[in-house]
Amino acid sequence: xxxxxxxxxxxxxxxxxxxxxxxxxxxxxxxxxxxxxxxxxxxxxxxxxxxxxxxxxxxxxxxxxxxxxxxxxxxxxxxxxxxxxxxxxxxxxxxxxxxxxxxxxxxxxxxxxxxxxxxxxxxxxxxxxxxxxxxxxxxxxxxxxxxxxxxxxxxxxxxxxxxxxxxxxxxxxxxxxxxxxxxxxxxxxxxxxxxxxxxxxxxxxxxxxxxxxxxxxxxxxxxxxxxxxxxxxxxxxxxxxxxxxxxxxxxxxxxxxxxxxxxxxxxxx
Length: 269
Prior knowledge:
alpha+beta, Enolase-like, domain 1, 11 helices
């Protein structure tokens, strides 16, 4: 094992300052970074642990506005009573991530900052029209995710929270890898005032060549009638979808339709 310097940040400002040390990386739950370090895909000189910063933890619901601290674990998201009432779809999504050990360590901020193409939260953030808040600015989810493992975050920028307006209806369905529980295809559907108007947004994870994306053809169909039956007529192209050992692009295209139907049915539930 190569040597690495460990720092426990006391505040967001402290974390931002420590990030200037060598080739430093933020550490929250470590569910992605630590395995990457073990396989030498990542070799930071310093780790800046933000998991103990109280200001980064917790779920707040004010009216229809939901705010979740970046260091809030998947387990905390899944079991928060206020969130279960305001947006049960997001709480259920969190309950599907990994296994209990992962859910008790992994965090929402770490997940979206890493932007794994098969992660669940990016689909929720895009479908909910969420805002990603950092120590420097606020970023719309539509502009935050740029590609596989890539976001618009700049050096020294720390995700502090995410916020969104609770939708009228929402649900998430995924076809998971039976071993890792990562999404081979995951679809989050939201209907309501997610972006300031009564719209429908459908976001897909696990399938796109460039990571999370919106399924515009399905959105258009559901905007006319929020019914699972209309999804069948909304063709999903396989042109920009992944083919790997788990599924072909054509198979994923079909799964998007299937998961979207199930999500709409659950949202109408």
